[in-house]
Specification:
The chain is of the alpha/beta class and about 240 residues long. The protein is built from 10 helices and 8 strands. The protein has an 8-stranded parallel beta barrel with strand order 1-2-3-4-5-6-7-8, surrounded by 6 helices. It binds phosphoenolpyruvate.
């Protein structure tokens, strides 16, 4: 799975151009999902662009709220996302954990909301720099993974995104990514009797480091922010997978 997270960037026209260019440039493989997560206000038009040209690009939302309906100004629920046939949703991105004060309880409610709505989850975890420096990453990730249960795993991809690597230009070293992905997979296998969970990496992925990161057996794909906005770069990275 190669995912483009647009965060709060771009216009409707930028996204239309991106969908057209990426659809032409990628050598699409059914086993490698190609996903765009546009800003929420463009979910509807993005779905229309995808449908118009019968693009293999799949639609992901950056947001889902846990409340099913009612008095939540700005909220988006699973039923709304299903109106645009949204296939994926990002939950637990470090920017939302930080700015929206998301914790285990609120994230668990979002997971339930997505799973009840039949939307596949990309569940983001990752440690801040002080935890990384203290060598405490595995304990930190164990706590973040604690809210998952075995039923979730049929519908979840884990995105390992060290916070110190997001948008900083400092990607984690491949050996570190490999070790951490191996830990996540083994931990979930032991705790939830799960055979296989996909783990993708995110954090300053660029054209010049993508091939090396993807070459690791424990890396099942990439979640890309900044570098993914350029359709040429994103398509080249997709074609490396
Ligand atoms: C992200 O926002 O999930 C991300 C990985 O961003 P960047 O690629 O810009 O570091």
């Amino acid at each position: 799975m190669i995912v483009s997270n647009w965060k709060m960037n771009g216009t409707k026209a930028d996204i239309e151009l991106w969908i057209n260019e990426v659809s032409n440039k990628i050598e699409y493989k059914t086993e490698v999902n190609c996903v765009i997560c546009p800003p929420s206000c463009y979910l509807d038009s993005t779905r229309s662009f995808i449908t118009k040209i019968n693009s293999p690009v799949q639609l992901g939302s950056q947001e889902i709220d846990s409340t099913h309906q009612g008095a939540l100004t700005g909220g988006i629920n699973g039923q709304m996302l299903n109106d645009f046939s949204t296939e994926f949703v990002l939950i637990g991105h470090s920017e939302q954990r930080h700015y929206l004060n998301e914790d285990g309880v609120s994230l668990r409610a979002k997971l339930d909301s997505a799973i009840d709505s039949g939307i596949s989850v990309i569940f983001c975890i990752g440690e801040p720099s002080e935890v990384y420096s203290n060598g405490d990453t595995k304990n930190f990730l164990t706590n973040q993974l604690d809210i998952l249960n075995s039923e979730d795993l049929a519908n979840i991809t884990i995105a390992y995104e060290p916070i110190w690597a997001i948008g900083t230009g400092l990607s984690a070293k491949t050996t570190y990514i490999e070790d951490t992905h191996g830990f996540i997979k083994n931990h979930l296998k032991k705790r939830l009797k799960n055979k296989k969970v996909s783990v993708v990496y995110g954090g300053s992925v660029k054209l010049d480091n993508a091939e090396e990161i993807l070459s690791s057996d424990s890396v099942d794909g990439l979640l890309i922010g900044g570098a993914s906005l350029d359709s040429e770069t994103f398509s080249k990275i997709y074609n490396l997978s």
